[in-house]
């Protein structure tokens, strides 16, 4: 094969590309929400929970941060059925991505939470706010605003890392690429196109997050700089 | 059929872990070298060099490592020069590492207060003297914790080389699983091996970070 590029050979596979793109986008949107939600709970309990809880969650965070995502995915998809827990591929991908994002984000959030001055929480309590109210308004939301840029980057890293779910036959973008190149033997063109799509997704995700952040944390802007 | 004892599995994984370590070292040393060049290109006053390096960093940080690996592995073949999984993995991980290290190091150099540049220049030091005696020693100190921390990402990144057929820890795990049908044991062990490699580095990075913090540098 000569070093010529031929992108026209990709045309008959538009529906596969769309299917793959949809899966990647849906997986990303859902796991970003569940992952960040779980991260809030983990971060809260790692700071305020019982000692055994703190210890257990610390273990979860460290194990997740110090093993490759692909191994976590294989463990959930191939390993757990060994214990009699059967999970289909897309659910395994969803669980692995959520747990992965939550572990990193909880650690990021914890840094944001511990940056809250003690006096602020006491002041909120003195003003008559309930524990939950003061925690939400004084600790959590400002902490979120403080570490928001790091959370964006982390969510994007998980989205890019999701390329690996193709290995357990989830029909995502990468799976579509593998599928197409196995039919038309134009691996380089296919992967180049898919890489570009990921790049646009990462760019779009950052944009979307920034827009949301501008809205949600609008009243914090002056204070945060 | 050959029976695999637990020891057989552990032994095979240990042997494969060597290649994870070797590939990580290649990627880290190669990535640090290229990353250093990129960092200085980024600092250059030439606009096109700055633009090239930031594009480079954005491209590698904005695309999946798996795609970078595929593009190099299949791209070389498409250009008529097929390369082995060893070469593809080494090249892809080196480039990936260099982009991240360049970004980390640039941040460290920029973290040294601007006033120090001005002060050194006012004292009559030229660009290289300022760099060597004022900026670099401080930036170096700042850069060590995040660099050690990133080495964990490099080790984890090598797991993707298994997908193009490079036999390291993860690939050995899937191969052993195909032979023994004990996925739970095997993937637990594989995870433990990675943990044993990465956790000490994570702890060391955190320790260094804390020391910097206590020294008032962060």
UniProtKB/TrEMBL annotation, chain A:
Domain of life of the source: Bacteria
Topology in membrane: Multi-pass membrane protein
Subcellular location: Cell inner membrane; Cell membrane
Residue span, ABC transmembrane type-1 domain: 21-209
A Pfam family of this chain: BPD_transp_1
InterPro entries linked to this entry: AA_ABC_transptr_permease_3TM, ArtM/GltK/GlnP/TcyL/YhdX-like, MetI-like, MetI-like_sf
Residues annotated as transmembrane: 20-45, 155-176, 188-205
Keywords: Amino-acid transport, Cell membrane, Membrane, Transmembrane, Transmembrane helix, Transport
Cited CDD domains: TM_PBP2 (cd06261)
Membership in a protein family: Belongs to the binding-protein-dependent transport system permease family. HisMQ subfamily.
Protein name: Polar amino acid ABC transporter permease
Natural source organism: Vreelandella lutescens
């Amino acid at each position: 094969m000569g070093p010529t590029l031929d992108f026209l050979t990709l045309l008959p596979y538009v529906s596969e590309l769309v299917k793959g793109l949809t899966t990647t986008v849906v997986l990303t949107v859902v796991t970003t929400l569940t992952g960040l939600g779980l991260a809030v709970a983990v971060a809260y309990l790692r700071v305020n929970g019982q000692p055994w809880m703190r210890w257990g969650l610390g273990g979860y965070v460290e194990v997740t941060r110090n093993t490759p995502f692909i191994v976590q995915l294989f463990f959930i998809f191939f390993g757990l059925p060994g214990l009699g827990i059967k999970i289909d591929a897309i659910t395994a991908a969803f669980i692995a991505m959520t747990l992965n994002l939550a572990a990193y984000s909880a650690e990021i959030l914890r840094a944001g939470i511990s940056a809250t001055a003690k006096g602020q929480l006491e002041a909120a309590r003195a003003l008559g706010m309930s524990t939950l109210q003061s925690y939400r308004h004084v600790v959590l939301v400002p902490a979120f605003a403080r570490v928001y840029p790091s959370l964006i980057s982390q969510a994007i890293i998980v989205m890019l890392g999701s390329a690996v779910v193709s290995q357990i036959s989830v029909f995502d973008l990468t799976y579509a690429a593998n599928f197409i190149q196995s039919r038309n033997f134009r691996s380089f063109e296919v992967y180049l196109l898919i890489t570009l799509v990921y790049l646009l997704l990462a760019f779009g995700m950052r944009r979307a997050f920034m827009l949301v952040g501008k809205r949600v944390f609008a009243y914090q802007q002056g204070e945060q700089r | 059929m050959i029976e695999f004892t637990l020891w057989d599995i552990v032994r095979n994984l240990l042997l494969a872990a060597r290649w994870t370590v070797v590939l990580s070292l290649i990627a880290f040393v190669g990535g640090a070298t290229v990353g250093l060049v990129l960092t200085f290109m980024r600092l250059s006053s030439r606009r096109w060099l700055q633009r090239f390096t930031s594009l480079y960093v954005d491209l590698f940080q904005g695309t999946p490592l798996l795609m970078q690996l595929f593009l190099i592995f299949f791209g070389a073949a498409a250009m008529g020069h097929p390369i082995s999984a060893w070469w593809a993995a080494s090249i892809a991980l080196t480039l990936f590492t260099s982009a991240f290290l360049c970004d980390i190091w640039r941040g460290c150099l920029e973290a040294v207060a601007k006033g120090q540049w001005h002060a050194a220049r006012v004292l009559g030091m030229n660009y290289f003297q300022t760099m060597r005696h004022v900026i670099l020693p401080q930036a170096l100190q700042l850069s060590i914790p995040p660099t050690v921390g990133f080495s964990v990402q490099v080790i984890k990144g090598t797991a993707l080389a298994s997908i193009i057929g490079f036999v390291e820890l993860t690939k050995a795990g899937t191969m052993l699983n195909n032979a023994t049908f004990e996925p739970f044991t095997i993937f637990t062990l594989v995870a433990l091996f990675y943990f044993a490699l990465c956790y000490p580095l994570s702890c060391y990075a955190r320790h260094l970070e804390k020391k910097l913090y206590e020294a008032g540098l962060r």
